[in-house]
Design a protein that fits this description.
Chains A, B: This is Proteasome-type protease. Chains A, B: One of its GO terms (biological process) is proteolysis. Chains A, B: One of its GO terms (molecular function) is peptidase activity. Chains A, B: One of its GO terms (cellular component) is proteasome complex. Two copies of one chain form a homodimer. By secondary structure, the first copy, chain A, is of the alpha+beta class. Chain A has a single domain (about 5-215), classed as Glutamine Phosphoribosylpyrophosphate, subunit 1, domain 1, CATH 3.60.20.10. Chain A has helices at about 55-65, 80-100, 155-160, 165-185, 215-235; strands spanning about 5-10, 10-15, 20, 30, 35-40, 45-50, 110-120, 125-130, 135, 145, 190-195, 205-210. In chain A, strand 1 and strand 2 form a beta hairpin. In chain A, helix 4 packs across helix 5. The longest helix of chain A has 20 residues, at about 80-100. The radius of gyration of chain A is 19 Å and the shape is globular. The interface between A and B is large, with 49 and 49 residues.
Chain lengths: ~240, ~240
């Protein structure tokens, strides 16, 4: 399984991905699911992946290999929309190639989030479905998720708006990951995160949050204790509840 | 869709169910999903249902109609285990009856939670799978869910233990429902709840929480505000997070 979140906010973009993959419950490994393309001062394109690992790795490798060619590639397409269409086309290409010789009913599909900014345009964020079509984040719906999205969705639904500042948005994302990791073993540390400030047109290094990271560990402790206190402080039910 | 929670705790049992059913997104209705059987001073058996409404209603009706007969029924089976096996058998009977003449691939299956206490035994709680087999709640895993379980599971995972008192457990269940109702339109008010104090062997009337219920509305407001404050109070990320 996988859990990825990307946010499209007034101040910029936030991306967080887990790194656990599994092929059966006894075949668990760590693979990065967040990838960065771009040219400083001109464009940043961030990809996050879920689904079949062979497919998503092939897609990312082909997108990288083709950066130098004349064909449309992630460093020369004019818009984020075109970048997303290119990623979707590459997914279909890989599935067509690998599906031919495949026995059985292995699911080769994968999903991508594609976000970033190209000079002259606003930041943008898309989600590519396994079928290859895609949707765009808007001010009304400023976040998109991939994979095991339900456990961590309530905290985003409740607290994330287009005008939320990047720091609070990142804290919200980390709490969302904490809830998901606690409830689903197939989502796991380390986390890869990347925060992009609108119009900076730099390629952020991002940050890998490991199990031992003191900040994330502190957030998890405080959040758990705070929720427990909050629950304890709720008023007692009235008599008609018959407790 | 449906969301039901039942808890098996040191002090007794807590049951909460939503009441929304849908056959397609444009065919939404309200049906009770929590049913009570029993004899004051001797036994209480509570059923909660999810899945095909025709099947689950037929099962509950047959279980009620058969209470007067000589055959094993919910008022004469000696244990909660046997009560659960009887419910499972009745599910299979209804599916076998209705499935014969059914064209297409309509899913007739349903799931039940069965909890209660019979004089001379401890309280007990089971979950019947759509396949008809069933599992039992234990001190390690004191709650069971039906239906749309993921949105509301983190708060239960974090805060519910076998020794949690009934009042705090009920508050925890209500918060779990609040999160689920916010994130999934197919889970909806009113809620039916029932709290059973261990060894009381009474048949609680239960309580229906409507949209206008001032206590639940207050809980929802306070919880939302409390979460927002808690998120705001979390420390800022260190410099290496590059926010």
């Amino acid at each position: 399984m996988t859990y990825c979140v990307a946010m499209h906010l007034a101040e910029g973009l936030v991306f967080v991905s887990d790194s656990r993959t599994n092929a059966g419950i006894d075949h668990i490994a760590t693979f990065r699911k967040l990838f960065t393309f771009g040219v400083t001062g001109e464009r940043l394109i961030v990809l996050q992946t879920a689904g079949n690992l062979a497919t998503s790795q092939s897609v990312v490798n082909l997108l990288k290999q083709r950066l130098d060619g004349q064909q449309p590639n992630l460093h020369n397409v004019p818009t984020l929309y075109d970048a997303t269409a290119l990623v979707a086309e590459t997914i279909r290409e890989v599935i067509a190639r690998d599906g031919v010789s495949l026995a059985g009913n292995t699911d080769l599909t994968c999903s991508f989030l594609v976000g970033g900014q190209i000079a002259g345009s606003l930041p943008d964020l898309y989600s590519i479905y396994p079928q290859g079509n895609f949707i765009q984040a808007t001010e009304d719906t400023p976040f998109l998720q991939l994979g095991e999205s339900k456990y961590g969705k309530p905290i985003l639904d409740r607290n994330l708006e287009f005008d939320t500042d990047l720091e609070e948005a990142l804290r919200c994302a980390l709490v969302s990951f904490d809830s998901t990791i606690r409830s689903n073993l197939s989502v796991g540390m380390p986390l890869d995160l990347l925060v992009y400030h609108r119009d900076s047109l730099i390629i952020p290094a991002g940050y890998r949050v490991t199990e031992e990271d003191p900040y994330f560990a502190g957030i998890r402790r405080r959040w758990a204790a705070g929720l427990h206190d909050l629950l304890g402080e709720l008023p007692s039910p009235p008599v008609e509840y018959n407790v």
